[in-house]
């Protein structure tokens, strides 16, 4: 059986800065004939470097890597949106892509017209689109706005319609980028369920996401891209293990502020040993710095998961803003989580942080950080047994917050 998709020695290069020759009028050339030759030299950036892989029919391939690794560039080349600098793509099936909100849609056309236009772009005939039309409308939830121009849709409505079209028009290959992160939690769950259904139906899926749990659920095989180079192609659990072992292992991680949204801008971890090594049963503390905008948000929730090397959650703590004013006032806030006796089996772990508003189910941030290692350090393993690498007994965790705010509804596994 031949692969449904082949990438052979793909290279993609960009010029940093303007890639086009500047416009020079006749007057410019006459007044300064050497101006054309005095342009600053352009710097060449290689986004993809000799990328080769194969995807078999019915296979689901996850693509993971840090921001700037070349994941989105690779998907655009596979989808035919941009050509490679060198190398070639061999595709033996029809591709449906969902790379950015509104890709392949026309803002002046209505939702109904865009469904037919997008289906035509995918090579579908009108009777084929009619066959799935009701399913698309029902899944997208935009029935009331079906004859409204797309430019009047919110980004979430555009996303729902675009995903519904891509998933229901029976493409042999479905390509999904991180665009699903735009949607709310309920829609993300719905999309992942549909993608799982598509995968089980024997169609091929290429899925790019920073959500490693979604990648491990939907794909059996994954590829780890780093700086435009394939570091690993293997079973998803193996690739995730290699990826997380290269995660940031610094004790202090900082992020840029988003002035219009609540933002975790600092995560600082205090382990019991030097570096990011923690001794079993010793205290461990995690401190968060959160910047709140002028707009008032209520029902905020901050959660922290400790994930093992296979991306399974082994510990989950969260704090809810239900009755006490947590993270309501604008400005900088600090929240600290302290474990008196942190007991996890020896191995490699990392943190997954969630910042969200529970009332609207809006996610502001979901990210991984602070990989660390737990060592026994000459301590005997406990006698009470283990389950999924998690000790069955945990001391209560203690949350404290800056600005004299009270902490409530703290729960520990």
Please give a structural write-up.
The chain is of the alpha+beta class and 413 residues long. The protein has 2 domains: 5-245, Rossmann fold; 252-401, Coagulation Factor XIII, Chain A, domain 1, CATH 2.70.50.60. Helices cover 21% and strands 35% of the residues. The protein has helices at 26-31, 71-78, 111-121, 126-140, 155-168, 185-200, 212-218, 236-245, and strands at 5-16, 43-55, 60-64, 86-91, 95-98, 173-176, 204-208, 221-226, 229-235, 252-254, 263-270, 277-279, 284-292, 300-308, 313-320, 331-339, 347-357, 362-375, 386-387, 390-391, 397-401. Strands 5-6-7-3-8-9 form a 6-stranded mixed sheet, sandwiched between helices. The chain is globular, with a radius of gyration of 25 Å. Mean pLDDT is 77; it is low at 380-396 and 403-413.
Domains counted in the coordinates: how many? 2
Rounded radius of gyration (Å): 25 Å
Helix-strand string: EHEEHEEHHHEHEHEEHEEEEEEEEEEEE
What is the approximate shape?
Answer: globular
Going by helix content, strand content and strand pairing, the class is alpha+beta
Which CATH top level class of the largest domain fits?
Answer: Alpha Beta
Mean pLDDT: 77
Strand proportion:
35-45%
User: What is the CATH topology assignment of the largest domain?
Assistant: Rossmann fold
Largest sheet: 6 strands, mixed
Number-wise, the strands total 21
Give the termini distance in whole angstroms. Answer: 48 Å
Q: What oligomeric state best describes the polypeptide chains here?
A: single chain
Model regions low in confidence, pLDDT < 50 over at least 5 residues: 380-396, 403-413
